[in-house]
Input
Amino acid sequence: MSSTAEGIAGPRVASKSEPVAGRLARGLTRGPLNVFLILIGLLWLIPSIGLLVTSFREPADYAESGWWTVLSKPAALTMEGYKNLLSNESMMQGLWNTVKITVPASILVVVIAALAAYAFAWVAFPGRDSLFLLVVALLVVPLQMALIPASRLFNVTGIFGTIWAVVLFHIAFGLPFAIFLLRNFFAGIPKDLLEAARIDGASEWQIFARLVLPLGMPAIASLFIFQFLWTWNDLLVGLTFGGDASPLTVLIRQEMRQYGTNIDVIAPGAMLLMLVPLAVFFAFQRYFVQGLLAGAVK
Amino acid sequence: MAVASSDVSAKSKSRRPRPKRPGGRRPLVALAFLLPALILLGALVVYPLVDTIAQSFQDQDTRQFIGLENYRRALDRDNTITALKNTLIWVILVPGLITGGGLIFAVLTERVRYGTAVKVILFMPMAISALSVGVIWRVMYEQDPDRGLVNAVIGAGVDTVKGQGAYPNATLSGEQDLEQPNAKAAVTSNQELAVGDTVTFGLVSITDEEVPADAEQAVAPEGNEGAITAVVWRDFKPGGGTAGEIEEEEVGLPNVTMELLDQSGEVVASETTGSDGSATFEDPGGGPFTARVAASNFDEGFQGFAWLAPALVTPAIIGAFVWGGIGFAVVVIGAGLAALPRDLLEAARTDGATEWQVFRMITVPLMAPILGVVFITMTINVLKLFDIVYVTAPGGSINAANVVALDMWRTSFQARQFGIGAAIAVFLFLMVIPIMVLNLRRFRRDES
Output
């Protein structure tokens, strides 16, 4: 939790020198401010709690009463939904597919982007600037622009409906942002450092692997977390190319066709899906926020 | 840092020295580093992009050039028109809402000690999938106020202000000279009444819980000089009884609003029944009158807004999206606020500027670039919007909730209309082009 505070709070600036009158005036306006902020906090917290409680309820209860009624009779809660979910083979296969998609997609995008970013930042070649402008242009291209031809391509190569179709597409569409982020970070490494290494006769590969990668670790960590969350949470790519290798999001979405009767699968399923991103969020918040700021503000 | 560089130099001492100019032209080396990225970007982003544009001008099977036919067909579809309209609504409302809201929350959370905790709570939905956000809000938006929290909260307010009928489920029992055109309407007596007359109203479908504790045995009314007397009772006797007759163990219904009408149908008097279910209209004047049990007694109270029905589905999903996305704005803007020159703000305050003036004249102008970035990022996100609409809108509302990115997917991969799908994708592409140009300009400016 300490990293959480650090990440979101940002640099603290002490403002102890505030005049007494100002502090007094502010103290008087604190009441409404506190009420407002607490209301906002509740408004953002309660919906998630609603899903959490719902995931522990009987489906018959869902049809009868609101989740908040359990506050008066907590005995009505049950683990049944989770038990059924964990013994539901297709859902568990979906979870496994999500893992099998997310891990390679996040690792490979970082590796491939780091290589390219190094070339963009530190190796001169003809057309470098124009090529990088193309990468910047691709940053905002919607996935939808590629879905139809890519699905043909996957069909022709026979990987449609496999993990690899989903993974490759995720990597490709993750690359523009990844290259952009890492190139900007790598470009900030002091030039003297690289020149010294070059004068000492280090090869480009050595400079990349021994110097730039270690120095770029903060950016690489941010990027990895971003990519991980983005891929883990994806529905669209999995839905389009996943076929038999569909991730958990797609399977939960299928259950939603009979939303009312399947709430005992949907609610625990959605909770299960949230578990990993929330763990990542709390564990690596600092990197998450840094990546966000680097991507957004730079 | 020092460790890393000395490591490199130590290991490479023995190697042949490289050209001294760093960043010397080494296209082959560069190509080796770029190759994996170039292959993937080429095959799965650039080629498909070009092919989608080509496809939008071609017949889907023969791939013959057919001009703007796909675009014409796309614009002939109600779904596409709805999608374009909805995307316009999203683009107009949401980026501004999130940027403005984010600025307000960021400024306010900065002023309290627990601000970071609030920020974490606001930011948490960012980590979870649009699918989970959709499920969360499906639960919140249930129409029945007993099941959906949004309607429960609204209902608590509405019912306090407006009140609820005393016997919302009651219906007319048989064998009486009474009329009720439909279930929730007033029950009117067919009998014409004059001063001294009495009238009875037997109602059923009232649960024991609905009968107030102070309800007493109903008594058949006796004529009352100078008044019209009405009795409303629960025409139900455990173990059976005669419909339309007041019997032992049948209680009067208190708190029923009774109305007396003249011949033109105007309400001339209104009374509430007592604990034995009787109401007395004293001295009503010359008749004839009719009496009725007012419709308000059967008012079920707030029944809940159908948030996910076609009429409200887009605002409802916008609510869910803002809930999910505002954390991004709060954190990015918060980081910007932390970097503002404190001296400037303090100086303004010392000079007597109000908090509002400081916000308006210093904070907002200095934050303008960051606000712009948040706004643009949100605009792109809104244009690409797919998951949350696809998940949150129930089957019956999905057409009403349609947006361009979703329409493209449904047209291509559900209806298998690839030509039209490609044309819709191009609409989407055209919408992001201004942002692409803006990004390129900003990048060029930052680089130089």
